[in-house]
């Protein structure tokens, strides 16, 4: 696989005019020096995104989105950084190998490498003579060899330490293997986490294996499924199963089917319904909802046909509806889940259900109607209140209006009365909810540091001035970010905002950096910069005085007290 270097990435970026690329997605209008457009990353009704040709960056003054040409394509297309580089390259006619990977030092590289080795071990073990029984089990369940290969399905060995022995011989550290959930350590005993189970790998959004699910396939008297523990690279609330395979098909159809289990997703995908992803539990985290929202696709919830699946459909659908995601529901009758339904009824039948789902509103009306006699006044009042309460947080006025109108027509209740009920619920909520604290504002110290960072990234001359000042940054995250800027400049002898954004694409500090360039804008002025350095030095000394005063109160040593007092006097004079 060819490696795409930092130099090549920068060459692609510098040859791609950000205005041309962004205007291929959204209309832009020139106003003064910059272009403006409606931001695609939030519900924007007036142009709040600014695109600078000079700096080759964009900023949204409303939602805080910011970045360079790659960042925009990455977030708009909902792809990885590498994919965004490839898309931009194709748009400007820059030929790169589709199998190219980025030649960067990836955070947690050894963890990913260990998971790759483990995956290959499991896949190869399934192909051995010892894997015949497991292969037969999978084939009998309707999973062909092609499907097994497509989903990287493997088998953990009967021996309890084969993988551990292999990986330790490969030079992987014991603590690392334990942290990612591949081995367990009990005193001097080291053994594999998975033993004699069919292995289903779990991938991150970019397709890297980060965890495993092990399933029994014989008559073992143990839990049916066993999952990897969470680790530095596996946070189940931040991924969706089968996302990396499904995303291209979701884009084509503008529709995503959400199922509950890994096996449901595999069965659906193998049956030709490739725009399918699976939950990592029975709920959706904020991060997972954001992933789905970025797909910009209609969501069809097809969860298990039991009480838990029904309740999950309600809560997940409500959360997506609150996020203004178009949501529909398919409920399977007589069969437990999509896997069982396809085995018994076939793919064509389930495709028919998917092509004519019910709206989430219809599902809610059905759900709250259950076990109620709507001829009974008390039940009817409860039902109406539940429906009205469920639409309280919906931001979309049209959805709220249609729901209220439907209730009004069905039960001959004046719509004005229903709206009053909705208003009353909102008032009750305001009274009951604790007052939300205002968003924490930056301290004076943080404001100055952000200004300094803006100067450093805007003109390398200020990097030299900053280093000469020897000013100390006592906030570690800002200190680390400044160190990254200085390192990049010294390595490349040049720096710009747009360049540095690409460099920071896989760095955990990237979000902080993008926030700073979004919030900060001023004409560069050498006197101002020197004032920022001087004020930062002053604040550092004031902070030191504060700490020394606390130390003075607690120390009992007379000589030490004198020494601390003298140091306080000296610092005060300097301040």
Q: How far apart are the termini?
A: 58 Å
Low-confidence stretches: 431-439
How confident overall, as mean pLDDT?
87
Structural domain tally: 5
Question: What best-fitting shape do the alpha-carbon axes yield?
Answer: globular
The largest sheet, given as strand count, sense and whether it forms a barrel, is: 5 strands, antiparallel
Our count of helices gives 26
Rg result: 29 Å
Strand content is 5-15%
What is the percent of helical residues? Answer: 40-55%
Give the SSE layout.
Layout: E1 3-4, H1 6-15, H2 18-23, E2 29-31, E3 34-37, E4 49-52, E5 57-60, E6 66-67, H3 69-77, H4 81-91, E7 101-102, H5 109-126, H6 132-140, H7 145-150, E8 154-155, H8 162-169, H9 174-179, E9 183-186, E10 189-192, E11 198-203, E12 209-215, E13 225-227, H10 243-253, E14 255-259, H11 262-270, E15 276-278, H12 286-295, E16 298-301, H13 307-322, E17 327-329, H14 338-345, H15 347-355, E18 358-359, H16 360-369, H17 377-390, H18 397-411, H19 415-432, H20 444-458, H21 461-469, H22 476-492, H23 497-503, H24 510-519, H25 526-554, H26 558-574
Parallel strand pairs: 1-7, 14-15, 14-16, 16-17
Antiparallel strand pairs: 2-3, 3-4, 4-5, 5-6, 8-11, 9-10, 11-12, 12-13, 17-18
Helix pairs in contact: 1-23, 3-4, 11-14, 13-16, 14-15, 16-17, 17-19, 20-21, 20-22, 20-25, 25-26
